[in-house]
Specification:
The chain is an alpha+beta fold. Helices cover 15% and strands 27% of the residues. Strands 1, 2, 3, 4, 5, 6, 7 and 8 form an 8-stranded mixed β-sheet that branches.
């Protein structure tokens, strides 16, 4: 009988990056995955989340890993937002969305509808209604939501330490937020057309001197 996985809902966070409806194509050689990156305010339940991960570690590896957990020797899927912000700013990128937060990244173990099919993780709106791909624009970087994850574990190949990770199961948008600009805005290159541009201009021929 297969081991039953632990599933939890993370605290509400701000969506930074997502690939929920279209498979991630950043690395053509890697298995396509759906993923999210959320920034959760450090005051919004992170300590309670750490308690859940502590209980998971004890259940998985026994009481002897208690000191390892408390001393930071178990790798957790919780990233320091302030550190990420500093790294981004050193590269000339915006980092404010990460400051004062714990950042969590999660991806699907596999595409539930196949590598070449749309549909990733289940995505819900504020009323817990499924968001269809045709309406995917309601979910955007900057909105707030809750990520449903499955907790799993592995052994880090570099250090040999125990490690805990999250697999993306679902996402619920909970409220709107200020949209994050993830690509350069090139709208200034263009002008309105048609009537919005003032219609046709009337020209008169200059008289010859």
């Amino acid at each position: 009988m297969a081991e039953e996985k632990t599933k939890i809902a993370l605290p509400e966070g701000r969506l930074i990056n997502e690939s929920l409806f279209v498979k991630d194509q950043f690395d053509e050689k890697a298995t396509p995955r759906y993923n999210v990156e959320v920034a959760i305010d450090d005051e919004a339940g992170i300590e309670a989340l750490k308690d859940i991960l502590f209980d998971y570690a004890i259940e998985k590896w026994g009481n002897e890993v208690e000191d390892d957990f408390n001393n930071g020797n178990i790798i957790l899927p919780l990233l320091d937002g302030d550190r990420l912000a500093k790294r981004r700013e050193e590269k000339g990128k915006e980092g404010d969305a990460y400051k004062g937060c714990t950042v969590i990244r999660a991806h699907t173990f596999f595409n539930r509808n196949g590598d070449d099919d749309a549909g990733g993780a289940e995505v819900y709106d504020e009323q817990v209604e499924l968001v269809e791909p045709v309406n995917k624009s309601v979910v955007y970087p900057g909105c707030y939501g809750i990520v449903g994850v499955t907790i799993d574990n592995y052994e880090d190949s570099r250090t040999g330490n125990h490690a805990i990770m999250f697999y993306l199961a679902a996402f619920q948008k909970t409220r709107d937020g200020e949209r994050l600009v993830t690509v350069s805005d090139s709208s200034s290159l263009f002008k309105p057309v048609g009537k919005a541009a003032g219609g046709r201009k009337t020209r008169t021929r200059k008289a010859k001197e």
